[in-house]
Amino acid sequence: MFKGLAALLVCILAAGAASAAVPQEASYPSQDGTLIKAQVFSPAGALPRGTVVALHGCGGLYASRGARRGQLNARHQAMADMLVGQGYAAVFPDSLTPRGESELCTQKMGSRQIDQTQRRADTLGTLAWVAAQPWASAGRIALLGWSHGGSAVLAATDLSRADVRAQLPKPALAVAFYPGCSAALKSGYRPSAQLVLMLGEKDDWTPPGPCVELGKAVGAEVNLYADSYHDFDSPVGEVRLRLDVPNGVHPGQGVHVGPNPAAREQAYARLRELLAQAFR
Predict the structure, then answer these.
(1) H/E/C letters for each residue in 96-110?
(2) How far apart are CA 160 and CA 165, in angstroms?
(3) pLDDT band for position 68 (50/70/90)?
(4) Does the pTM of the predicted model rise above 0.90?
(5) Beta-bridge partners for 230
(6) Are 246 and 252 in contact (CB under 8 A)?
(7) Residue 260 and residue 238: Cα distance in Å, rounded?
(8) Which residues lie closer than 8 Å to 214 by C-beta, 6 or more apart?
(9) Residue 18: what pLDDT?
(10) Residues 142, 53 contacting (CB under 8 angstroms)
C-alpha cells in the first residue's frame, strides 16, 4: 500500500535532475472490490496544489512496444511531467491489468469484459482513496480521461446514477478527451462537476457529434479542434490508419489515430488554465 507523501518525495528526489517525473505505486480497492494499482506522481518538496486523477483509454496505461514497453506510455508520461511541473499530484489508476487484460481496443464493443461499469467503480474508488490521503485536499481533485477513460469521466460524474450522487468527494473539474458520448446522451447525463470536452473534428473512432450535442444539453465547454483525429494530443508518432480496431464510425474499415501538435498545445494550454481556476 502507498505509505504517504514522504515516501513519494524520497522516490522523486532520488531521481535527481532527470526530467521525467517518477511515480510511486499505490494499491486500494475499487468500489466493486477489485484491488486497483495506480501510479502516483507528486511535486518534490511541497504539498500538491491539487490532484488530477487521470484515466487511461482502451490501450491501458503502459506502452506495449518499443523502448518504453512496460512503462507508462508516452502520452501518460508527458501528462504526468506537465502536471508535476505545474505543482499538481497525478494519480493514474490501472483498470485493465488487475482484471487480466492488457488492452481493449482490438475487442468488439459487445465482447469486452471491462466496460463503464468497472471504470466507474474504479474512478469512484480512486476519488475516495485520494481524499483520504494526508497530502490531498478532498475539494481540490480533478478528473481527466482519454477515449475509454474520457467515457469513464462521464460515467463517474453522472448524477443520474445513485452511486455517483452518493460519492464523496465530488471532483471540482472533469475534462474528457475524445470520449464516446452516446451512452451519456441516452442516460440523461447530468454532470456533478464542471465538464470540459476536448474533441477532434475528424475523429472517426469516437466521433465528436454526440459530444457536441451532449455539451449543448448540459452546458459543458466543448473544444473542437480542426484537422484532428483520435489521439490528437499524442506527443509521438504520426496519423495512421489502425485496421485492428473493429469499432468506430465505419466498423471493419479501421480508424485514424495520431497527433496534431498545434491542437495538442491548444488543448493542454486550456487544461492548464482550467486547473489553475479550479484549484485557486
Answers:
(1) CHHHCCCCCCCCCHH
(2) 8
(3) confident
(4) yes
(5) 257
(6) yes
(7) 8
(8) 181, 184, 185, 189, 197, 220
(9) 45
(10) yes
pLDDT at 103 over 90: yes
- Closest residue by Cα to residue 151 from 127, 122, 108, 110: 122
Taking only the tens place, the pLDDT of each residue in 207-230 is 999 999 999 999 999 999 999 999
Phi, psi of 105 (to 5 degrees): -60, -35
Length of the chain: 280
Is 131 buried (19+), middle (13-18) or exposed (0-12) by CB count in 10 A? middle
Give the position of cell 442516460: 187
Which segments of the chain are extended strands (E)? Answer: 24-29, 35-41, 51-55, 89-94, 141-146, 173-177, 194-200, 221-225, 240-242, 255-257
Domains and CATH numbers, the chain: 5-278 (3.40.50.1820)
Residues 6+ apart with CB under 8 A from 171: 53, 127, 141, 142, 143, 157, 192, 193
